[in-house]
Amino acid sequence: MITNKIKQFYRLFGQDENHALRNFQRYFPEPYTLNEITHDTAEDFVSHNEVANQALLIGVEIGKAVAFQKRQVLLNAKYSTKMGTFAQKKIGHLPQEQLCLALLDAQLNVIGWETVFVGTVSHVQASPREIFQRVLKANAVGFMIVHNHPSGYVMPSKADIVFSQRLATLGQQMDIHLFDSFVVTHSDYWSMSEKKQLKKLSRSNQG
Fold it and tell me: DSSP readout, 163-206?
C-alpha cells in the first residue's frame, strides 16, 4: 500500500514514478525506516530531487503528527444538568432550530459537538443515517442529540419523542447507545433520559 502511495505521489509531480520509487527505496527500504530518519539521510535524499522529495518528507512528518492527535474532551456528560447547561449555551439562543450531535467516549466524555441539521424557526428535518454515519466515523461509543426550540417552549413535541425513540431503537441494534435526547431553550433544558422517555421505549421493545 505504501509503495502505491509513493508512486502516486511522484506521479502527481509529473515524474517517472518507478525511477523515483527506486531512489526512495534506496534510502527507506522498509516503511519503519521513515520513523528513524536522520538529518544527514534526509538531506542526502532531498538532494536527488529537491522539491518532490522535500514535499514527501514534509508529508511524512504531517502524517506522524496527525497519528498522535486525539479528540479534545469538551466536558463529561455523566450528569444531565451539566450537559443541558452546556447545550443551552451552545444553541439555546438561536433563532432557527438546529439538531446537534454530542459524540461520547466510554467515560461519557463529549469528544465531539457537531451541527447535523439546520432548519426553520419551528422545524428541522433529520436523518438517522447522517447521525449514525458521524458517530461511526468518530469511533464514538455512544451519542446524545440536542435540538433547540426558538419558541421558548421547552417540552418536546410528539415528533421529537418518536424520532428520539427511533434513534434509540436503531442504536440498540447497532450497539451504539443513545444516552439522552435534549431540547433546549435560552432559559431551560429538557432531558428525555431524565423523564424516562427513552427507557419506556426499551421496555416496550423487549416486550
Answer: HHHHHHHHHHHHT-EEEEEEEE-SS-EEETTTTTHHHHHHHHHH
